[in-house]
Amino acid sequence: MTDLTNNMEIGISTFLEATPDPVTGVVMSHAERLREAVEEIVLADQVGLDVYGIGEHHRADYAGSAPAIVLAAAAAMTTHIRLTSAVTVLSSDDPVRVYQQFSTIDGISNGRAEIMAGRGSFTESFPLFGYSLDDYDELFEENLELLLAIRASEKVTWRGGHRPAIHNLGVYPRSVQSPLPVWIASGGNPESAVRAGTLGLPIAFAIIGGMPENFAPLVALYKEAAVRAGHDPAKLQIATHSHGFVGETTEQAAGLFYPSTAAQMNVIGRERGWGQRYDRAAYDAARSLRGALYVGDAEYVAEKIILLRKNLGVTRFFLHVNVGTMPHREVLRAIELLGTKVAPIVRKELAQNA
Hints:
The protein is of the alpha/beta class. The chain has helices spanning 30-46, 67-75, 95-109, 125-128, 136-152, 190-199, 216-228, 250-272, 280-286, 298-312, 328-352, and strands at residues 9-14, 51-54, 82-85, 88-89, 113-118, 155-158, 166-170, 182-186, 203-206, 238-246, 294-296, 316-320. Helix content is 44%, strand content 16%. It has an eight-stranded parallel beta barrel with strand order 1-2-3-5-8-9-10-12, surrounded by eight helices. Strands 6-7 form a two-stranded antiparallel ribbon. The protein is globular and about 60 Å long.
């Protein structure tokens, strides 16, 4: 893990979008998008990025239903980048299998795997795996409890209300890291912040709208809960995940990223009844210095990340590239610029102000 006293980790997150091309309407195959993801992880490792995360979804417009398998494919082809889910929908998964999958990645990568556990912003996995949305919160709490018990001890005894009990059974393989990192992911729910703080677990906030600085009260809530539970606040890790894109110029980045982003945001908006259409004005407002979109040239994106660090004290930043389907060469170039241009600017600034 990177020393975070005067530094921060910077990486990529994705849902493995396989949405219609906003210009041609062509939809790439899931197989192609999966192969692209492995190429992205290898490049991210080569250009010095710290982490790559894949979100679990069970929809036609995303290829990431099994993040652990994609991460495992890249584990043996990389040397230092950390490999995480972003997120694992723990409510509708089996904690035993989740631990086994990520401890396997940990072994292949020699200690670079992580789990980011969340309840899921989409709910397709619940009917798919036979769970009721009425148990949405209870399933997460029970499964998180079991997952943490498994990572803490080779032999596990546990009983809950939704899964068969386990009596003194071993779970293998064991992870290289002790313990295997488990993060809590939140879209801004105060209860999630308190839960993560109480357990002393790192937290990741998804900030895809409004102003990131507005999450400061949640960060404070997280830290207060941790202190009350006896955890050292200096050891707490805080990540954010935001949409964005790095280009040669800010104008080029804005132009490239808008069509696919608007198309996908409007699909989700219709599904969720947001009412207001996502248009260029909303997009440009979100690209402002205090907005939630990290779109621009390397200097501008770095400036926004540094401001985020100042306002929220984050120790890790995920740039979600891409929100909808974009030419793969452009995505690879954005990853290259994030690693070779943006990250060095941020690290230098933080080192100077340590």
